[in-house]
Write a structure and sequence with these properties.
about 90 residues, transmembrane, transmembrane helix, NfeD-like C-terminal, partner-binding
Amino acid sequence: MMTEPLWTVWWVWGAAALILAILEVLVPGFVFVGFAVGAAAVALFLLNTGLSLGLAPLLLIFAVLSLVTWLILRRYFALPKGQVKRFTDDIND
């Protein structure tokens, strides 16, 4: 009986996406959200296609989608170049 390698199972990528999303909540700053989206996309790809790809193509898909997500988030949520976030009011006032 041959078993599939662990990285070709969709729920492993789904669990990784969930763990990365939880890490994003604990460590703010859009650090892990791109990786979570990339892992979730790979999980959906494996679930919908049923293909059994090797580790290299899956990591490539994961890396490309993570980078694209990070670039999109940076474009929409980053401060304009040279601008610094300042807080002028105290939360307790």
